[in-house]
Amino acid sequence: GPTRIPAISAPDSTLAFLRDGYDFIATRCDALGTDAFRTRILLRKVTCVRGPEAVAAFYAPGRMSRRGAMPVSVMTLLQDRGSVQTLDGEAHRRRKALFLDLMTPERLEAARAILAEELARAAAEEWRGRKEVVLSDAIGGIMCRTALRWCDLPLEGEDIAALARELSAMIAGAGRIGPDRLRAGLLRARSERRMRDRIAAARQGHGGQGWVIDRLIAHRDADGSALDDAVAAVELLNILRPVVAIGRFIVFAVHARACHTGAAHWLEARGDEAACRAFGEEVRRVYPFFPVIGGRVREAFDWRGERFGEGDWILLDLYGTCRDGSVWPAPAQFDPERHMRPPPPGAMVPQGGGDMEEGHRCPGEDLTRALLTEAIGFFLGLDYEVPAQDLQIPHDRFPPWPRDGMRLGFSR
Ligand code: HEM
């Protein structure tokens, strides 16, 4: 029969994907008047999809595996051997609970309090009196200390600046090919080793390594086995690294306030928790972070009148779905007020979609919201200027910073 999901004519889209980055899937969907098309990336057949219906199909329980599903080197650094991302079914559900159990209201409140202290300390001890601070440089150390303190990992003996560099490099290097990527891989090996040593020490009864390591040690997988030191270290980095990554959204929130006058006025006029939260949600919706999530079909299914067989590769456009004009009114407009109501179902997917417990949706979403809300409130109360600078955000980096790193002035 006729193809219901069109194929694009180019034989391979790898370079186009790298060049167009965040816009790759959406621009082609718009041009073809569709929300699904077929192409090849790295010569491998792939179906690219976007929008809430695609989210529902992609996140149907048990349907898609994450193994071998990320394009090029994009974010392969975020998928470590033996980690929760690589598991499926019951094994995944059990391991996932380990992460979700960390996110109690008390722990989220504690995280906010720690971040508030770290931001206030940086502002008082490091920023005050300095003409300019590059926020994208400054945020790594703040988030790293926040992450370690939240996990109750002792800061003593830890070279915070070095660890912050390592954790940030893993994120920044994730979307690159070549030396950056290699460097990130080496740095990862170093922090993995250090975390492994801490876990081994805790296991041998030298306590005082904090509640998160205690949880990792106490955890039992679906088959009843404990995590070995290497996998426990990988999962510990699966907590530390993304907490540091939340710093990107914090920088983006400062950027948004500088660039979107109407939204900034709305935030400043209200100034309350709900407004800060809504502003943070709009940052998560429109700013570029995870462009796509890849999956491979575990259980064959039909969608749009076509068959998806076992092993087939699908790329879901997270960024494009958050800006899908069929469900978001004026999608390109930065309008925090839209989050004073619940979002359209399946459309708010910056950290994945579907069910957190059953599927691979990010377990750190509540923590991300909590820390982002706290930080937005903090900057609202801080006296700073935004000097003239290049505020553009490139779209061919995964993920990007504002070109000048978001410089802030503290001359007064
Ligand atoms: C998974 C984004 C923060 C831990 C994911 C996924 C995305 C994502 C897109 C993949 C979803 C999928 O495979 O369907 C982000 C972004 C964050 C963030 C943009 C903000 C900076 C966090 C935090 C934590 C965390 C704070 C933990 C403290 C994880 C873990 C997974 C994951 C463990 C794997 C889940 C699984 O495979 O079941 N995240 N995340 N993330 N995230 Fe996050």
Automatic annotation (TrEMBL):
GO terms for biological process: sterol metabolic process. CDD domains: CYP152. GO terms for molecular function: heme binding; iron ion binding; monooxygenase activity; oxidoreductase activity, acting on paired donors, with incorporation or reduction of molecular oxygen. Keywords: Heme, Iron, Metal-binding, Monooxygenase, Oxidoreductase. Gene3D superfamilies: Cytochrome P450. Its cofactor is heme. The keyword Iron applies. It comes from the Bacteria. Belongs to the cytochrome P450 family. This is Fatty acid alpha hydroxylase. It comes from Celeribacter indicus. The lineage of its organism: Bacteria, Pseudomonadati, Pseudomonadota, Alphaproteobacteria, Rhodobacterales.
